[in-house]
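Structure in, sequence out. Go:
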């Protein structure tokens, strides 16, 4: 007996709903478990104070700042190069052998494990440059990790712009480059910003590549010292910097304090909430920019 089309459609729809529900349930259980375990540590003192080794009551203030500063430095390096690569691939690259090789290299680089990027960073940015374990070494390592992602995001965002917009610009007498800068890039900004903020969240949670580049310790920081050339300044990019993700691994593996598990649970909750905030901000900002640059309401 053959199944009619309506019955098959209902069964397929039900299967898709079940799969989607399972994904949402797994995510809710994972996030809920982490936040519940670390909820008791989520307070202003824990977020802003320094770690206290071999004693209870330490915080994650320097590690949280190091993570945010690392995101800033890495995106400062990655965005110009990735955007330029995306513009080339979307507007200038012809469908030939060279383009296929470039795409293969981008895909291969995007699939490399972060631990391999970390070892590469240890060899090049830590050893060959003579910088040692520094924020800049870590920022360059995660920039290598995220460069292919930013390039693909930029290319897709530029290609998603309606061809009629570009044609209208060229018809009015603008050059190709003027059309890219004045018309195409502004129209692609919502997609670019959304992808870049999500990529920033990925940098924020990175640990493996930073173990070998940024280090697993931080000097005593004086947050009133804003001289970026001072060794005690938090703005100095050439100092060791333990990020939040690395600190979670370190606390769990070395047991540096009697309440190491509670510190790790609290830090994990802060980390997962921060990544969620990156995603939420990207959606809100993407919708706002889409409305501003296109004059229409973004689809909900």
């Amino acid at each position: 007996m053959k199944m009619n089309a309506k019955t098959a459609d209902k069964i397929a729809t039900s299967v898709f709903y079940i799969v989607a529900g399972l994904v949402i349930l797994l995510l809710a259980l994972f996030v809920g478990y982490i936040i519940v375990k670390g909820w008791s540590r989520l307070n202003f003192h824990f977020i802003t104070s320094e770690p206290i080794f071999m004693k209870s009551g330490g915080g994650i203030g320097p590690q949280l700042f190091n993570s945010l500063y690392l995101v800033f430095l890495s995106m400062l390096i990655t965005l110009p190069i990735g955007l330029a690569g995306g513009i080339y691939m979307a507007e200038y690259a012809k469908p030939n052998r060279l383009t296929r090789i470039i795409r293969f290299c981008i895909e291969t680089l995007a699939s490399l494990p972060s631990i391999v990027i970390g070892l590469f960073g240890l060899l090049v940015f830590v050893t060959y440059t003579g910088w040692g374990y520094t924020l800049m070494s870590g920022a360059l390592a995660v920039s290598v990790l995220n460069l292919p992602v930013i390039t693909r995001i930029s290319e897709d965002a530029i290609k998603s712009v309606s061809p009629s917009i570009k044609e209208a610009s060229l018809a009015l007498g603008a050059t190709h480059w003027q059309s890219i800068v004045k018309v195409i890039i502004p129209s692609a900004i919502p997609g670019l910003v959304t992808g870049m903020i999500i990529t920033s969240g990925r940098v924020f949670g990175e640990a493996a590549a930073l173990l070998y580049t940024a280090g697993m310790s931080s000097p005593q920081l004086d947050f009133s010292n804003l001289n970026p050339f001072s060794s005690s300044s938090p703005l100095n990019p050439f100092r060791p910097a333990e990020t939040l993700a690395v600190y979670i691994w370190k606390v769990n593996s070395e047991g540096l304090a009697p309440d190491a598990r509670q510190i790790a649970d609290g830090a994990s909750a802060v980390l997962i909430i921060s990544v969620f905030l990156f995603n939420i901000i990207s959606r809100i900002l993407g919708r706002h920019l889409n409305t501003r640059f296109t004059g229409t309401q973004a689809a909900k």
